[in-house]
Amino acid sequence: MPSPKRIGKIEFGLLSPKEIRTMSVRKIIWADTYDDDGFPYPQGLMDLNLGVIDPGLRCKTCDQKASECPGHFGHIELAKPVIHVGYTRLIRKLLRVTCRSCSRLLLSPEEIEKVVGTEDDLTGDVLSEKDIKKERLCPHCGEQQLKINFEKPTTFSEIFIDDGKKIEHKLTPADIRARMEKIPDEDLRHLGINPDVARPEWTILTVLPVPPVTMRPSIILENGQRSEDDLTHKLVDIIRINQRFKENQDAGAPQLIIEDLWELLQYHVTTYLDNEVAGCPPARHRSGRPLKTLSQRLKGKDGRFRGSLSGKRVNFSARTVISPDPNLSVIEVGIPLAVANEMTIPVQANPFNIEELRQMVRYGPHRASLSDPCGANYVIRPDKRRLRLAEGNLETVAEMLEPGWTVERQIRDGDIVLFNRQPSLHRMSIMAHRVKVMDGRTFRLNPAVCPPYNADFDGDEMNLHIPQTEEARAEAAILVAVEENILSPRFGGPIIGGIHDHVSGIFMLTNQLKWHSKEEALYLLKNIGVEHLPAPGKQEEGRPLWSNKQIFSTVLPKELNMVFRASSCQNCETCRRELCERDAYVRIIDGILESGTIDKKAIGAFDGQIVNRIIRQYGMKRAAEFIDAITHLSIRAIMMNGFSFGIDDEDLSKTEYGQIEEVLSNAVNDVQRRIKIYEDGQLEAMPGRTPEETLEMQIMQVLGKARDRTGEIAGRHLGLGNSAVVMAVSGARGSMLNLTQMAGCVGQQSVRGERIMRGYDDRTLPHFKKGDRGSDAHGFITHSYKSGLNPTEFFFHAIGGREGLVDTAVRTSQSGYLQRRMINALQDLKVAYDGTVRTTGGRIIQFCYGEDGTDPMKSSFGDPVDVKGIVESILKEEV
Amino acid sequence: MNVLEHVMVPDHQIMSEEEVQQLYSLYTITSEQLPKIYHDDPAVKVIGAKVGDVIRIVRTSHTAGRAESYRLVIKRPKK
Fold first, then answer.
1. Tens digit of pLDDT for each residue in A220-248?
2. What's the CATH code of the domain at B8?
3. What CATH number corresponds to the domain at position A682?
4. Both A476 and A519 in a single domain?
5. What is the mean pLDDT of residues A473-492?
6. Residues A530 and A465 in one domain
């Protein structure tokens, strides 16, 4: 391999006519491509000097075959110069800043110095169009300057006033080129142009490079007809017009015809370079499809940059819809048999595995059912030849198999694969799972791994990649595996953990003290692999009973000690600890849950205190097992009673409805009272606020309180027997606010934190009186979602909802772009072995990573050492 | 006014030739690989460092409590 070299500088410049002729291997004069025998015309567009695309022929320039010849440029001598569309802005600028007669900058040396600075003290600025006053006299030759008009795409004209009439005089490309040629090098430097590599007259083409045939290959259709590339078509047009132009010129045709032809040539060259220029009808194919010319090849999503260079398609990958399977382990992924049959892993044959591989070859590419062993799809001989396995050749290939051959065997259970969901915003967006081949057509995953992927099952698709080498598989298993990524390096806590029903289920299992019969205990623990039931907690009528806390404790490691408060903790002023009526004080002593409820705080994704402690004490692998156990247990627990939510779960009794109505009408009256005070001018403004603002704040406060009161009333009626309450209290999903809005009162709708004020003159809707400040006129919704909104309320609700939608849309796009910029700026930094953060060039960014050298993933929610956790696990009580 | 007296400005010191050599050998770097600071930086002007000097900056850090960093004084380039 050649040694790496450092790039000193990159020079950007224009292609000069001289360079174009030097790099050209052939002057192209004929518009035709192939003769009747299918042989390229010499000096035609498919000239053999430009490279070869037909197999068998040899390039006349480099004498190589089609596969080796890179292709060579040719050139067309244009009859008259034409403008290059890509440089029209530059041309316009140069025409405007230089004199029309002497072509020097329209500034005196003193004026230039003001912007550019003196030779020893350059300001770094360059001259721009704005530095030059319009239509002034040239400071060098005194010529009156004219206004330069530019009309898209390529027309330039001078405007002068004669007899009070505006007269437009068109500038031909030749005129413009003549002016450009005269601009002195020194003046160009002041404009930020390096004349050594970019003389401005080179923006006007006198000779056109013809790209090699290798970049515009013709394809042979099924009927034997040749179909040329769009670029070739365009070049044919250019040569035709150019030829006609030359003939007319030589014959001394009238000026009018010459001008027409010149414009036509300009059009063809313009569309050849860019077929999407404003003010220029795109050149079309015979079928009416616009041609894909040079600029179109590079631009856009499928262009050369975004489509071919930044993004490529990969082999050994699969994509399909995902669906949940709580019976899988978090480290597994369910793969449809159809996918597993198609995807392969290469295995090299050696004396120890050759019999096994022979058997795989005999099975062949068709694996009919899950219980069948995996087969093989291809065999690669030592000479790199691939043999496709099919029904007919299985036995023969199996016999031929020898050490040194490679068998591409199908995916089977236990293989390690990379699983990915876009957008891949953090490293946990790609994790390595163990394969479990399954029926069906979707990828299956344990819902506990949804948070790192940010996946749900409303139609999400995910990608799967099969590592093909031992190194790749080792890397996947050691670095990328799910069990290595339970902790998020973002905040040093577990990102994988129970979600939704896992939390509800474990909450319902562990809340308060309950007793279960042996049958129930065994049902709950069936899928967890518990070998022995603990001794029963008590006997009743001669039957042994196990407490719910005992059952939960079977999944805990034996030496676990921790004390914390569950999500359901209300942060009472004096904590009653074990006697907490909500059972929110969690104490685990020596792996036994002594008191408290297990919920989101204990096992949830992002919080997961127990998961976190197990990782610290026993490692990630044990934590993955724990998450598996807890998800299986909680799914069983939630299935004991079933869990559902219906419209009648929002029902309250007559008393509550009466109370809610009273609270709301009191609030509405209170608002009216305050408005009255304000209108009488009696309202005392708060410091730094106008009376209006004070009133608004008071109203918001009163109405907010009223809504919360309705929530409390509803909450009093709905106890833990209500699924929504269970979900809210356990932290599984939703909050008491959602419940308030469903059963009590939806409350105030707001736009930018204020009551809704926009709409008609002095009112929000024509239903209200002008100047009405009442609660209902500004978006207070007294109804609940259950009782239904009236039309004005519904409208206000839509206004408030829209704001939320817009906010999320704006936030995601902004944070996405911010992250993209951060990644681009930071992607090459790494932590060196001495703890410094360095660029690829070895330059130091930080002398110690994060200044304390702590790996955020191994930190405890940001702190280097989890002092509290260690002390608690030794003292076995809260500190 | 002295910028170093402002609460938000960390401590800047010029390092001796010896210290600089120690620094280079500690991290096995050349002066080019150090972070840079312009000669006309207000803090640099106050401590009177010249182009080519290395400055030790001691900050209070959220994570480490106290963090040291080093910067090479360079001339502000022309734009």
1. 888 877 788 888 888 998 999 998 888 88
2. 3.90.940.20
3. 1.10.132.30
4. no
5. 92
6. no
Q: Please give, rounded to a whole number of angstroms, the shortest distance from the CA of A124 to a CA of chain B.
A: 5
Which of A121, A844, A864 faces B35 most closely, judged by CB atoms? A844
Residue B51 lies in a domain: yes
pLDDT of B79 strictly over 60: no
- Same domain for A790 and A658: yes
CB distance from A122 to chain B under 8 Å?
Answer: yes
CA–CA dist A727, A501 (Å, integer): 8
Q: Residue B27 and residue A125: Cβ atoms within 8 Å?
A: no
Provide the domain count of chain B.
1
pLDDT, tens digit (0-9, with 9 covering 90-100), for A639-663 = 998 999 998 888 888 998 999 999 9
Pick from B29, B61, B70: which is nearest to A851 by CB? B61
Of A567 and A417, which is predicted with more confidence?
A417
Structural domain span for residue A557: 501-617
Residue type at A398 in one-letter notation: A
CA A77 from centroid of its chain's CA atoms: 47
> Is A11 in a helix, a strand, or coil?
coil
Minimum mean pLDDT range among A29-38, A299-308, A765-774: A29-38
Instruction: Answer yes or no: is A708 within a domain.
Output: yes
Instruction: Tell the burial category of A77 from Cβ atoms under 10 Å away from its Cβ (0-12, 13-18, 19+).
Output: middle
- State whether residue A865 sits within 8 Å of chain B by CB: no
Do A366 and A476 lie in one domain? The reply is: yes
Q: A415 and A329: one domain?
A: yes
pLDDT of residue A327: 92
pTM confidence score: 0.79
The per-residue pLDDT for range A387-415, each reduced to its tens digit, is: 999 888 899 999 999 999 999 999 999 99
Q: Are B33 and A845 inside 8 Å of each other by CB?
A: no
Strand runs (DSSP E) across A477-552, as ranges? 515-516, 538-540, 543-547
- How many CB atoms are located within 10 Å of the residue A360 CB? 26
What does the pLDDT look like over A448-461, one tens digit per residue?
999 999 999 999 99
On the CB side of A58, how many CA atoms lie within 13 Å of its CA?
A: 5
Nearest to A842 among B33, B67, B70 (CB): B33
| Nearest residue of chain B to residue A121 (CA atoms) | B78
Are A13 and A6 contacting, i.e. CB atoms less than 8 angstroms apart? no
A854 close contact with B: CB closer than 8 A: yes
Instruction: Report the candidate in A836, A688, A694 with the shortest Cα–Cα distance to residue A773.
Output: A694
Range of the domain at B68: 3-74
CATH assignment at residue A605: 1.10.274.100
Q: What are phi and psi of A491, to 5 degrees?
A: -140, 5
Look-up of token digits 């289920």: A505
- CA proximity to A435, closest of A374, A352, A362: A374
pLDDT tens digits for A495-541? 999 999 999 999 999 998 999 999 999 999 988 888 888 889 888 88
Place of tokens 């736009």: A751
DSSP assigned state of A40 = B
> In whole numbers, what is the pLDDT of chain B averaged over residues?
91
**Does any CB of chain A come closer than 8 Å to the CB of residue B61?**
yes
Please report whether residue A77 resides in a domain: no
Say yes or no: A353 contacts chain B, CB-CB below 8 A: no
For an interface test with B, the pick among A848, A858, A859 (most B C-beta atoms closer than 10 Å) comes out as A848
Q: How many domains does chain A have?
A: 4
From chain B, the residues in CB contact with A124 under 8 A are 78-79
Residues A750 and A612 in one domain: no
Q: Do B70 and A854 touch (CB under 8 A)?
A: no
Average pLDDT of chain A to the nearest whole number: 89
CATH of the domain at A386: 2.40.40.20
Which residue type, as a one-letter code, is found at position A8? G
Instruction: Give the pLDDT of residue B28.
Output: 92
Q: Is residue A282 part of a domain?
A: no
Is residue B79 domain-resident? no
**pLDDT tens profile A98-122:** 888 888 888 887 777 777 777 666 6
Pair (A452, A383) in one structural domain: yes
Work out the average pLDDT over B40-55.
Answer: 92
**Which residue from A minimizes the CA distance to B66?**
A851
